[in-house]
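REQUEST FORM: STRUCTURE PREDICTION
Request ID: SP-0412
Submitted by: Lab K.M.
Chain count: 1
Length (residues): 384
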Amino acid sequence: MRTIFGSLVLGVFVVACGGEAPKPVESPPTPPAMPTSPTPPVDTAPPVAATPPKPSMQDMQKALVGSVSDGINGHDAAKFSANYADDAVVMVSGMPDQVRGKDAIAADVKKVFDAFPNVKFGFGRVWAKNDVLVCEWVDNGTHSGDLMGIKATEKPVGYTGLSVVWVNSDGKIKEEHRYFDLGTIMSQVGASKAKARPIPALPTTVEWHWAKSDAVEDKGVDAMKAAYTAFEKKDEKAFGDMNADDVVWDDMIAPGPSKGKAEALKQFKAFTTAFTDLKMQATNSWAVEDYGISEVTTTGTPKGPFMGLVSQNKKPISLHMVDVVQMKDGKAVRGWSYGNSVELLTQFGIMKPPGSAPAPAAKTEPKPAPKADPKGDPKAAPKK
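STATUS: Completed
RESULT:
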C-alpha cells in the first residue's frame, strides 16, 4: 500500500510542475481460468446395514427354550425340529434306539401329537452351565390316539421329565439326553396296574439358574460323587450324614416323594440290598448355584426284590438316570431323580422292550373237514 500511494503522489507532483505526464501503467493480463473438476456422481445406493452382533450363548439358550415350547404347544413338528442341528442326536432313557437327524426328530414328535392331540408343554426349571442346559419340563394331554400299540383311552396323562442338551455355536441343539417315566404313562392310561403318579400342574414361568463356576459352587459335584461312593461301599452312615433331617427325595418313577432322613436311609438300604455288587458311575456332572446335577449309570446284579419287583432272569442290569440335588450347609435338602421304570422292567424280564415286535401267534393245524355220510349226514363219517 505504501509503494502504490507514493507513486500516485509523485505523478501529481510532476504534472503540476509542467512535466509530461507518465504513460499509464498497463494492467497485467488476466490469467486464464483454471479448469474445474467434474462434479462427482451422487451415490444413490442404499447404505449397507451394519452386521448386528451375534447373540450371546445365554441369549440363544433363552430363545431356544422359548422356541421349543412354541413348537410343541403349536403342535408343529417342523418348528420343533428346527431347534436341532441337522445331525443332532436324541437319546431317550430306556428306549433301544437313538433318534438321529432333524427329519427323524420331527417324525418322532409327530407320534406324540398323534397320541395326545391336545398336548400342552412347559419348562419348569432350567439349569445352565456354559453350552449345557439341564431342563425340567411337564407334558399334559389326553390319550386320544395310538400310543405304542395302545389304543386311545381318552384318559388324562401328565408327567415330569428332564432333558440334558448341548447347544452349538448357532444356538441349536446338537445332542439331547431325554429322561421321563414311560411307566407313569402306562399306569395313567390303565395299561399297568402300578400306582400312577398324580398329574403335575403345567408350569407357567421358567425358573432359570445360571452357573457361577466358582470354587464354592463346584463343591456340588464333589458331593454328588461322594454320595455314589457311599452307595457302592454300602456306607449307610456316610450317606446319612450327607442328608438334612428334613430332606425330601422325589424319584419320578415312584408314586410320590419320600420325606425325612429316616425314609431316605430306608431307600438306601433297599437299593444296596437288592444289588450287592452295585456300581454307580457319574458320566456327566455339573454344579449350578446350590445344585449338584449328575447323569449316572447304575449297574448291578439283582439279588432280591427291588421296588416290589423280582427279576425273572437274575441277569445284570444297567439303568440310566439324572439326579438333581439342592444343597444347604453341605447337606442335601431336596433331591429329584429322573429315569424310566420301563428300563428296569424290561431287564427284569417282566415286560418286552418298547417297540419290539409282538410275539407271533401260535400256529394251529386246520382240522380236516368231516367226510360226508353216504346217507347225507355231513357230520358223520362213514363206518369202515
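NOTES: Confidence is low (pLDDT under 50) at residues 1-21, 358-384.
Reviewed by: T.R.
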